[in-house]
Each structure stands twice: as structure tokens, then as C-alpha cells.
Specification:
203 residues, alpha/beta, 7 helices, 7 strands
Length: 203
Amino acid sequence: MIITKPKPFEEILPYLEGKKNIFIVGCNVCAAKMKTGGEPEVLSMVDRLTAQGYPVIGWVMPTAACSIRSFDHLVEKNEKIREADAILVMGCGSGTSVIAAVSDVFVTGTNETVSLGGCLGANPSKNLCIMCGACNIGDFTGICPNARCPKFQMNGPCGGSKNHKCEVSKENDCVWYLIEQKMDSLHMIPLLKNVQMPKDHAV
């Protein structure tokens, strides 16, 4: 699941200046779970833009903004999209890119794409993966420090945590505490002595 957060409303408006027909595309999967682009959020965006005098001509909720068959697939859901001169996508960066690829009008998004996460029951879990392309999650029993440590420590802990809480994100457990607990339960603590080399992000 892609983790997103809404851009400030004021940052979206300049992209829509001078547009005569604005159409909104939501996302019924990740953005709906994150409450950044589900139907309630799309309807709220329609109301907010309309109240500011921006002409919204319609909206649509594909299953996933990042996975549509074609522009015609969107037309089947709402023909008003044919009249749009601007499409506002309330999904992740991938969804915005896919809609832009099948459309010949201006496209922009309403969200910041933060990370790759997951969903435990109804609760989204953030920062589970940053898609670095050099995965060594097996060295840490399925917990990625590259994604969950604000300092991107590949060898830890850093020494700054207090009461098992991260000194940067004080509301979060230190990921190295979580790794240690899991490895201890699996009798794998000696593996923490292995020094991890820095990631090569130039690949």
C-alpha cells in the first residue's frame, strides 16, 4: 500500500488558475485507506474548490488510479472527463503519472507520496519500505531499518533512543529496539554483530 499525505490546499490552487473545466480522479485503494483520496475526500475537494470559485465539472472513483485500462475506462465511469482541461488526481505519484499518460490535458496531484506501507487489519502501517532496490530485510527478520529509522541507520541503535523510543520521532518505538526484540525471540541476536555496509543508491 502506498502511503500518502495531503498537500496543503493552498499549494494545489495555483496549478488550477485559469482552468475552465476541472475533473477529479480519486483512488479507491491506497488513498481511500489513507483517507487522502477516497470518495469522502473527493467530495470534500469538490466542495472546497467550488467554494473558491474553481469550476469542477465532475469526478470519478476508479478502483486504483495507478492501474486503469485506458482513458476510455474513465470515460465509461463519467463522460464529463472528456470536457476537462485539468485533471486533479487524489492518489499517489504513480496514480497521477498513469492518469497523465492516458490523458492529453494538464494533470496534477493533491497528495505527497511518502512511502510504501501495509495494512494490518483496518490500520495502515507507514514506512515499511522505501523501495531502495537493495533489500536486505532478511538480515533484520523482516523489519527494515532503512525505511523505519529517521537517520537511515543500517547498524544500530544510534544511542539516542530513550525508553525504547526514537529520539527523532518520539512517538515511535526505536526500530532497532523492535529488531532486537524480534531477533532475541528467534535466538538470532548474534547476527546483529554483522556490520552492514552502506547502501549504494547509485545503482
